[in-house]
């Protein structure tokens, strides 16, 4: 692996082999998502606890201070909306020169395996890998399910992750599911878990993150369950402990509760 690629991956994946990415890219198809109306204000207090930010170029330029910033994973797919016909009909939105200009540590793009636009989104990934590898920039593939949340099982996610890795993704982001070791076991590159819609309780979040890590995930890219929490900073701190300090779900909950009282 060349120095640039190695260096960028090392900015994202910490020396303990783990990572906590903070996604604030939801507006690229959802518009002003609840609690992310002002993304800069939402994420500022959470930054000390995470290792990188997943964000579009528009929000990055408009809302994130370039000085002292966390490494950036640039969201580079889009072109659809909640109001449109098909969320899977994405294209690559951002040129390689823009990716380099913004000093991205990595880029992220969604693939929609099994959808009508499967081929287009997988070829988006393949072409993006071709371009980014020339510049030593890792591509993170996002195995998206659009509105079909019921697709989140080990068989489907394992298929999607493996295909993304085969096409050259350096990291794959997918949803946690029962039997998550089957997803990780069939994927030859590191797997990161997304959070999905907000869970009922904090413990539920700590439990699935912990389970995913035990089953081989290297970390999380988890947004709504942090910044839609009534206590986002306490949530970020507790998740940091699960990721980087081997906290169990019970210990994370205790930390969360202690932080909310502080
Ligand atoms: C949506 C994304 C998000 O980055 C991903 O879903 C993680 O966020 P959350 O934990 O809120 O699901 O790709 O565009």
Brief overview:
The chain is α/β, with parallel strands linked by helices and 262 residues long. The protein has a single domain (3-229), classed as Aldolase class I (TIM Barrel, Alpha-Beta Barrel).
Question: What's the layout of helices and strands?
Answer:
Elements lengths: L2 H10 L6 E5 L3 H4 L8 H5 L8 E4 L1 H7 L8 E4 L1 E2 L12 E2 L3 H6 L4 E6 L6 H17 L4 E5 L10 H13 L4 E5 L4 H6 L5 E4 L7 H13 L4 E3 L2 H4 L4 H13 L4 H13 L1
Parallel strand pairs: 1-2, 1-10, 2-3, 3-6, 6-7, 7-8, 8-9, 9-10
Antiparallel strand pairs: 4-5
Helix pairs in contact: 9-11, 9-12, 11-12
The site of ribulose-5-phosphate has 13 residues, from helix 10.
Structural class: alpha/beta
The number of distinct helices, counting runs of at least 4 residues, comes to: 12
Give the strand line-up of the largest sheet. Answer: 1-2-3-6-7-8-9-10
Average residue pLDDT: 96
Bound molecules: ribulose-5-phosphate
What's the number of domains? Answer: 1
| Fourth CATH level, the homologous superfamily | Aldolase class I
Number of strands: 10
The largest pleated sheet is described as: 8 strands, parallel, barrel
State the name of the first-level CATH class.
Answer: Alpha Beta
Distance between the terminal alpha carbons, to the nearest Å? 45 Å
The helicity comes to 40-55%
Residue fraction in strands: 15-25%
Unreliable stretches:
none
Which second-level CATH architecture applies?
Alpha-Beta Barrel
Overall 3D form: globular
CATH fold group: TIM Barrel
What's the order of the H and E elements? HEHHEHEEEHEHEHEHEHEHHH
Radius of gyration, taken over Cα atoms and rounded to an integer in Å:
17 Å
């Amino acid at each position: 692996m060349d120095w640039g690629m190695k260096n960028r991956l090392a900015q994202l994946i910490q020396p303990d082999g783990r990572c906590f990415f903070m996604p604030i890219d939801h507006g690229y198809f959802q518009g002003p998502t609840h609690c992310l109306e002002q993304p800069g204000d939402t994420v500022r207090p959470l930054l000390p606890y995470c290792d990188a930010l997943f964000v579009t170029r528009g929000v990055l330029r408009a809302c994130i201070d370039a000085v002292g910033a966390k490494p950036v994973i640039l969201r580079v797919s889009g072109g659809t909306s909640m109001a449109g016909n098909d969320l899977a009909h994405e294209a690559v939105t951002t040129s390689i020169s823009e990716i380099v200009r913004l000093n991205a540590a990595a880029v992220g793009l969604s693939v929609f395996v099994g959808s009508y636009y499967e081929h287009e989104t997988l070829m988006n990934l393949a072409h993006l890998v071709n371009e980014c590898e020339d510049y030593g920039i890792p591509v993170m593939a996002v195995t998206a399910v659009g509105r079909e949340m019921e697709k989140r099982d080990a068989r489907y996610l394992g298929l999607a992750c493996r295909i993304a890795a085969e096409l050259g993704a350096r990291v794959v982001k997918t949803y946690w599911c029962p039997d998550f070791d089957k997803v990780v076991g069939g994927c030859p590159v590191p797997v990161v878990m997304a959070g999905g819609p907000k869970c009922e309780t904090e413990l539920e979040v700590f439990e699935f993150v912990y389970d995913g890590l035990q089953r081989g995930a290297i970390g999380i890219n988890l947004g709504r369950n942090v910044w839609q929490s009534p206590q986002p900073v306490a949530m970020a701190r507790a998740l940091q402990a699960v990721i980087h300090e081997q906290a169990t779900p019970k210990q994370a909950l205790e930390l969360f509760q202690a932080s909310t009282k502080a």
